[in-house]
Structures are given as structure tokens and as C-alpha cells.
Amino acid sequence: MAYEESRQKAVVLTCTLSPSPAESSTALMGQQFVQELASHDVPATEIRVVDHDVRPGVMADMGDGDEWPAIRSQVIDASILVLCTPTWAGHPSSVAQRVIERLDAELGKTQDDGRPSLFDKVALVGVVGNEDGAHAIVADVYQALNDFGMTIAAKGCTYWNGEAMHKTDYKDLSETPPATLSALKGAVANAVHLARALSISGYPAPPK
């Protein structure tokens, strides 16, 4: 089914533990999402969250120099959110968990028409790591983002797991593994399609 073109924007939240300008496998995957979104005429901004003073808490603005409100405004302005995280001890990074905790504030916020603030936004997830855990991480992040009102695109993730107990990182590979790249391309194509559809016919307001 063909939908009329509707201008979309995306934001990629890279949840590496490594501040800029350090090299990061998670940031590399985030940039790959940015490039693939651009191929669909969807401009995307990548934000390395650890570079910003995002305070702990579950409010939209924790005050005292909290930099989450500026990031939140870009999430609200976007139609597609990509969350990329490394795997640590089989779980998403602490930075990713903090993003999820801050997004929890959206449960109490609505758009001008009374619908939840994150309705009609599409979510994708990317995971890198040198150990198993990608499926569990994707499932956890999916559940949280869906609880907050976002829609998960079909096959809306990609991941790469290196060999257990070895030191090769995603950023050290000579090329991106075809399966990881194919999944990324498919996830982006599905997300863009879904975001355009939702921009034409969004979700109804929840029953009162």
C-alpha cells in the first residue's frame, strides 16, 4: 500500500558508556541507523547521551542543570526513536536504563488533543556486545517503550554479539556482518513506512 509522502524526523539515542570523542561500537551502530534513515529521506540526529548531564529520576525535568529536557524535546519532535545500547553483564547499559527511567515521565503527559505524548512515534532498538543477551535486552527495551506509548516496527531491531570472552568489538570489524546490516536496513524501512502511516491516521484518544 502506498502512502502519501509525509516528512519524518528521527532521533538516535546512543547509550554507550564512553564519552566523546572515544570510539564506540554503539555509536558506530547509531551512525549506521542515521545513514540508513537518510537513504529514506528521513533526517536523524544522533545523541551520545553520556555526553550530557542527564540526572537520575522519573520526571521530565529534574532541575539543577538537568540536560534531559533538551533531549526530550528532540524525542517529542521526532516521529522515530532509535535506542542503541551496549550489552553489559547481559543487560542494557546504565545509560540506557536512565533514558528509560526519564521516559517514564511521559506516562503522565499528553499532546494537545489529549492523547499520550508518545503516541504515533515509532521505536527501533540496536544492541552490540561481546556476550549473549541481545534478545533479552531488545525485549526489555521494547516493553518499556511500548508501555510509554510508542509503536514497535515489525522486525524493529538489529544486533551483533561477538564471541564470548573475547576482545573483538563491533567497531573493530573490517566490515559490518551482512545479517546485522540487513536487519538494520529492514528495521529502518519498516519504521519509516509505519511512521508515515501513523502521520496520516494516528491512534485515537484513549477511552475515558
Automatic annotation (TrEMBL):
Residues 20-156 form the NADPH-dependent FMN reductase-like domain. Pfam families: FMN_red. InterPro entries: Flavoprotein-like_sf, FMN_Rdtase-like_dom. One of its GO terms (molecular function) is oxidoreductase activity. This is Multimeric flavodoxin WrbA. It comes from Paramicrobacterium agarici.
